[in-house]
Amino acid sequence: MTVPLDQPAPHTREPHQWLGAFFIVPSLIMIGVFFIVPLLMTVWMSLHDWPLLGRSSFIGLGNFVEIMGDSQLWNSVGFTMLYTVLVTLALFAVAFPLALLVDRPLRAAGFFRTIYFMPVVIGFGAASTLWLWLLNPDSGVFAQLLRSLHLVSAAPRPIESFWPALGVIILMVVWKSAGFTMVILLTGLQSVPGEIIEAAKIDGANAWSRFRNITLPLMRNSVLLALVLNVTSSMLAFDQFFVITQGGPQNSTITAVFQIYLASFSSYRLGYGSALSLVLLVVLVAISSIQLAFLRTRPEES
Amino acid sequence: MKNWMLMTTAIATAGLMSMPVQAEDLNLWVRTSSAGVLEKLADLYNASHDDKVVITGITAEQMVPKLGASIAAGAAPDGAVLDLIYLPTFAATDSLEDLTDFIDGLPYAAALSPSHIRLATFDGKKYGVPALPDASIIAYNKDLFAKAGLDPEKAPASLAEIAEDAKKITALGNDTYGLFFVASSGSWLVYDFTPHIWAAGADILSEDGRTATIDTPAMRATLAAYNDMWKAGAIHPTSRSGVGNDAVAAFASGKVGVLMTGSYIVNLMTSQYPDVNFGVAAIPGPDGGASSFAGGDTLSLMKGISPEKKAVAESFIDFYMQPEQQVLITKESGMPPRTDLAKEAYGAFDPRNLVAYDILASAKTPYTYASDELFVARTGPWVNLLQSAIFDGKIDEAIAKAQADFTRILDRTNPK
User: Which of B90, B184, B373 is closest, CB to CB, to A267?
Assistant: First the structure.
């Protein structure tokens, strides 16, 4: 079945190239209308002083110059980083043991997988509102529970100070999305060939060194995928802070996206909000490409 | 034919003889909390007129962004019933129709809620008519006052008295607290806290709304009194993170001595919690005096509305200003926009409604072009000032920071 190199193979050539183009047109239209056009509009708006009401005026890079000196923004970027690191650590700390627990050929494992995954299907806004009520010091479930167990004498009021507020938000996010990280890690665990583990067992490796030296390196791609997804979604965190802490106490829990919201829909500065969005876009693309660069390196090369 | 005749007469009265005759629809955007009573008014109007008033409810927090976006897109409604505090913002951006001649020509023009008219005035022109006003007041639990050895028929006349009473009521024990105020919501704080400052003759903004005047002896005294109550444990602990919905429940439970609230509380309590024995009063200053925040809604029309629709709007306004409809408004939302109808509007109502009613004529509202950014936002300088001064006790620091933040925002948002 060898074909001479200087002669095109008649059967492998695409017969109707326009057909392929035709098939991708709907998706191109969608991407164009809902991504490219808004992105270009954002770039255009970011070069203007664009109030919600009244006339807009072209100010060139004025918004970006202001961003450089906007201490409130850089505080919020710092807070977003802190939140991202803490929530990612917490998610892995919970999701990894869960994945190991449900990675068993038992019928009950499927049941628990479903249970752990269930909060993932709730929207972030709805989950935040739910937790706002759970956390209510007068009528919330948590306060009642802790008091009836005599663990506390007065209802806890976590959202009134910084670390407790951040703590309950992280708790909520772990409850809400650990199941998703668990599923990703589970696919990694299940892709580790059983015979390698068997061989290691025969060679006398204990459970820890089997996990450390075989399972972990082989599921590296799943770990990195979970990391990229968690970091990206944490950098974009908004709903949970908007609903539960509302940025308080003393504006200490304002994330980068929250800052964009405030610029656009509290100060009604749509131009400045657009400029902030573009800066965040650049930061996110940078972070994601660093992570994806890691992802592309095969384990055997490192 | 009869309808045609009526229509012609109506339009001729409005001075629009040359217009072709045809029934008009007037679309009004209304915040959802006000939609109920406005729909009732519109139904009554529509039943007796050929033209139709159509009410669309919009969530309160989304009203400004949605209306702004619709104006920018050239798809604005004919008019909107707006929180009066936004009137300067919309008027200054040339978004509203001038109603000066219509308002000045009304026989009851002098009786319209003065703060609503002041907020609707920009550059000497009037852009809105009061629709559903309310006024902030204090409500106090007479039974708790009696239990604590205080005179239940005499409302506290100064903030100093409130503080003293609050401590005595807290001393009753059994999870009883002297004061509840909603401290984690900008709109509640501006509504219930600014009257203390006004009562002492001071203000937080200059008359034209362009300069911040946060650092006044009245502000310091008021913050110190609140901080003193907080340190003494006399303020309900949920005040600090309260956003509004917990306040009425706390007061209705009978364990709160004084509630910082609004005129709507009278109708709400008498209908839902008739057992609570309470009185109401104007909001006192640190050492006496009294004031109130005039809140509620103003009806305004979007710039460029057709003369036909404008005529419908004017006829609808005159309709709801008639005594019969003013009584309905009072029944539904607690207070009418006309201040000259005490007997008609209140004859059959709880006399406690009259307290707020009397205040409305002298109640104030900050004239500002940046309401959301300064006052409403949970992250704005107003909420942060009160939170940090009252609960953390950093009064000097908080005042200096608020003055600087207010000034920075005003420098940017003041119309050129």
Answer: B373
Structure tokens at B78: 């004919």
How far apart, in whole angstroms, are the C-alpha atoms of residue A67 and residue B148?
56
Task: Name which of B249, B290, B274, B327 is nearest B37 in CA terms.
Answer: B327
A56 belongs to a structural domain: no
Residues of B in contact with A262 (CB under 8 A): 377, 379
Question: What domains are there in chain B, each with its CATH number?
Answer: 2-134+295-360 (3.40.190.10), 135-292+370-413 (3.40.190.10)
Q: Is residue A245 part of a domain?
A: yes
The phi, psi pair for B50, rounded to 5°, reads: -75, -35
DSSP secondary structure letter of residue B62: G
> B378, B397, B410, B412: which to substitute to probe chain A, counting the most A Cβ within 10 Å?
B378
User: What is residue B357's DSSP assignment?
Assistant: H
Per-residue pLDDT in tens (0 to 9) along chain A, 302 residues: 454 555 555 555 666 778 888 899 999 999 999 999 999 999 999 999 999 888 889 999 999 999 998 888 999 999 999 999 999 999 999 999 999 888 877 788 888 888 899 999 998 999 999 999 999 888 889 998 998 898 888 888 999 999 999 999 999 999 999 999 999 999 999 888 888 888 998 988 888 888 888 888 888 889 988 998 999 899 999 999 999 999 989 899 999 999 999 999 899 999 999 999 999 999 888 988 888 787 776 655 44
What is the chain B residue with the closest CA to A252?
B379
Domain that holds residue A153: 79-266+273-301
CB B295 within 8 A of CB B262: yes
Q: Residue A53: closest CA among chain B residues belongs to which residue?
A: B68
Structural domain includes residue A282 = yes
Inter-chain residue contact B94 with A54, CB threshold 8 Å: yes
Of B90, B184, B241, the CB nearest to A53: B90
Contacts of B175 (CB under 8 A, 6+ apart): B255
Q: Residue B216 carries which DSSP code? A: -
Amino acid at B399: I
Identity (one letter) of the amino acid at B324? E
Within 8 A of B92 by CB-CB distance, chain A residues are: 54
**Whose CA is closest to A236, among A228, A244, A226, A225?**
A228
- Give me the number of domains chain A comprises: 1
Residue A214 in any domain: the answer is yes
The ipTM (two decimal places) reads 0.84
Per the CB < 8 A criterion, the answer to whether B126 and B120 are in contact is yes
Between chains, do A52 and B69 touch, taking CB under 8 Å as contact? yes
Measure the CA–CA gap between A99 and A208, rounded to whole angstroms: 16
Please tell me which of the candidates B68, B376, B384 has its beta carbon nearest to residue A52. B68
User: Please, where are the H alpha helices in B171-263?
Assistant: 186-199, 217-231, 245-252
Q: What is this structure's pTM?
A: 0.88
Nearest to B71 among A53, A254, A265 (CB): A53
